Amino acid sequence: MRILLNSFGLALLALLSTATVQQCGKPAITPKTVLGSDGRVIGGQEAVPGSWPWLVHLQMDRDGEKRFDCGASIISGKWIISAAHCFVREDNCMGELCHKRLDTDASHYKARVGQHRNSDGAGLDATARDYPIRRIIIHELYNMAKSDSPADIALLEVDGLISFTSVVSPVCLPTARSDPPAGQSCVVAGWGETIPQLAKLKSVPLSGHSKASSTVVMQVGVDIVNRRTCNSTQYYNGVISDDMICAGTAGKDACQGDSGGPLVCKDAAGAYTLEGVVSWGEGCGAYQKPGVFARVGHFIPWIEAKSDINSGSPAVSATVQLCLTVLLILSALTF
Ligand SMILES: *[C@@H]1O[C@H](CO)[C@@H](O)[C@H](O)[C@H]1NC(C)=O
């Protein structure tokens, strides 16, 4: 009996160690550095395949119409974060004016993980896998009538459990109220347009379907812009709210097709943390028009309330730990 319990305890110990071995924010494949030798951020470049392992290629398929519009980020085996505006459907357009509604029918979307090439042109990469979506939760304060709406964030529950590999793993969530300081160097990754549209000075959500989309994952280093500066008359003239982060300078920005994708910054321990979700901007890489991101730190209480994710250790490993302790005590008592 004692031997049986002890081996059961050992098995649980093994289970516990495999459950906690999956670290967040630590790519198995080292990303290209975004800093030049002089320490300054350099422009956009192709990412090393698999080096942003939390990056998701969101697939839309409704009524036979297949499209890729958006990126997203894996935060656990079950949950993905993207932008709310990725789920706005436009139809009955009269010129520029379209009828808008939210399409949160989960059967219309799939999460492609482990993908490097843009699926628009190419198929599924050998390392990639599609997961069906079970549920789409749009933030209640998101207002689709505004292209610069606050709360541009969405949670996607995956049907099943994402298997983590060397090219598929989660990003870390920031602590509640996290707000990266002005000047911090961070990185945006995605399949967005690589041609800056400097002339297009119109506030647009960064999701439009575009022929200029990149054929592979691109990364660009961006510096966080002071929120007050970003909200000033010369920049975005009062539309920047507390739940937004501005980042990027002229020529270095997120662009259409990057929407919903990650803005990651390294934390003190060297782990990549999801500080922002690509949201909107005027033009791309334009002067005094940085990219605007949903500030994930602001939404941590919302994320915790809507999902089973705790910013501390996952509930499952706490349960396993408790079982293990009880069993070890039991096996000790059988001596
Ligand atoms: C940006 O400016 C507007 C208008 O002055 C103001 O209402 C808003 O609170 C400001 N945002 C922040 C984050 O300070």
Annotate the secondary structure layout.
Layout: H1 2-21, E1 45-46, E2 55-62, E3 65-74, E4 79-82, E5 88-94, E6 97-102, E7 109-113, E8 129-138, E9 154-158, E10 185-190, E11 203-205, E12 218-225, H2 227-230, E13 244-247, E14 262-266, E15 272-282, E16 291-295, H3 300-306, H4 315-333
Antiparallel strand pairs: 1-12, 2-3, 2-7, 3-4, 4-9, 5-6, 7-8, 8-9, 10-12, 10-14, 11-15, 12-13, 13-16, 14-15, 15-16
Helix pairs in contact: 1-4
Bound molecules: 2-acetamido-2-deoxy-beta-D-glucopyranose (NAG).
InterPro entries: Peptidase_S1_PA, Peptidase_S1_PA_chymotrypsin, Peptidase_S1A, Trypsin_dom, TRYPSIN_HIS, TRYPSIN_SER
Protein name: Acrosin
Organism: Hypsibius exemplaris (Freshwater tardigrade)
Describe this structure in words.
- There is one protein chain.
- The model is unreliable at 17-21, 195-204 and 313-319 (pLDDT under 50).
- The chain folds into 2 domains: 2-20 and 318-334, no CATH class; 22-316, Trypsin-like serine proteases (Thrombin, subunit H), CATH 2.40.10.10.
- It has 4 helices and 16 strands.
- The chain starts with a helix and ends with a helix.
- The longest helix has 20 residues, at 2-21.
- Helix content is 15%, strand content 30%.
- Helix 1 (2-21) runs antiparallel to helix 4 (315-333).
- By secondary structure, the chain is of the alpha+beta class.
- A hairpin with a 4-residue loop joins strand 3 and strand 4 (79-82).
- The protein has a 6-stranded antiparallel beta barrel. Strands 2-3-4-9-8-7 form a 6-stranded antiparallel β-barrel. A two-stranded antiparallel sheet has the order 5-6.
- It has helices at residues 2-21, 227-230, 300-306, 315-333, and strands spanning 45-46, 55-62, 65-74, 79-82, 88-94, 97-102, 109-113, 129-138, 154-158, 185-190, 203-205, 218-225, 244-247, 262-266, 272-282, 291-295.
- Residues 227, 231, 238, 240-242 line the site of 2-acetamido-2-deoxy-beta-D-glucopyranose (NAG).
- Residues 1-19 form the signal peptide.
- Keywords: Disulfide bond, Hydrolase, Protease, Serine protease, Signal.
- One of its GO terms (molecular function) is serine-type endopeptidase activity.
- Residues 41-308 form the Peptidase S1 domain.
- This is Acrosin.
